[in-house]
Amino acid sequence: MYEKQFIGYEYQERVVEKKYEPVYLDAYPNFGWVIDQHHKSTQNPNNIMLHMKRNRDLVNRIEIKRLENKFQATMNEIIKIEKRNQLIPTIQACLVGLFGTALIVGAFFIHNVSSLYLSLLFGLVGFIGWVLPYFIYKTQFEKRTHHNQDSVESKYDAIYDLTKRAHQLCYMD
């Protein structure tokens, strides 16, 4: 006769950015988690909700939990680096755009007060200040991404090592 053994599970829900969904879906099973379902978050369409469960009776549960925490910390570092890659070029582009706007306003006031040529010069430089931010953002973003690529790759290598060790602890005993 077939007897089913009792298995106690612990449950976890994790909200992750859609961009990193494959990394999390590949990594969490190595920590003993079974992903029941994953779907778009109702609050933010750029996020994914992962519903997971894991056997409470894992042999090396404390060590696996420690490796899982290191994995999450490393993922947070990767996310922070990639957000910083966007933030600094955005600030630079916005500052140039604001400078261009100030020059356009200056051209308007100069035109009302005095010289047409000085007003045209300010207006032309201000217009360039409106067009230039796109190119500044694009080049600075590519430069920062290229500069930080080695750091991000080393973090992904660390994640690979963590998940490999966790998999060995979960399934190779």
Explain how this protein is built.
- With 173 residues, the protein is of the alpha+beta class.
- The protein has two domains: 57 residues; 115 residues, no CATH class.
- The protein is built from three helices and three strands, in the order βαββαα.
- A three-stranded antiparallel sheet has the order 1-3-2.
- A hairpin with a 6-residue loop joins strand 2 and strand 3.
- Keywords: Membrane, Transmembrane, Transmembrane helix.
Structural class: alpha+beta
Number of strands: 3
Strand order of the largest sheet: 1-3-2
Total discrete domains: 2
How many helices? The count is: 3
Instruction: Please trace the helix and strand order, writing H or E for each element.
Output: EHEEHH
Shape summary:
elongated
Mean pLDDT reading: 90
Low-confidence stretches: none
Residues in β-strands, percent = 5-15%
Main sheet? Answer: 3 strands, antiparallel
Rg from Cα: 26 Å
N- to C-terminal distance: 28 Å
Key terms:
173 residues, 3 helices, transmembrane helix
What's the SSE blueprint?
Elements: E1 9-17, H1 21-27, E2 34-40, E3 47-55, H2 61-113, H3 116-171
Antiparallel strand pairs: 1-3, 2-3
Helix pairs in contact: 2-3
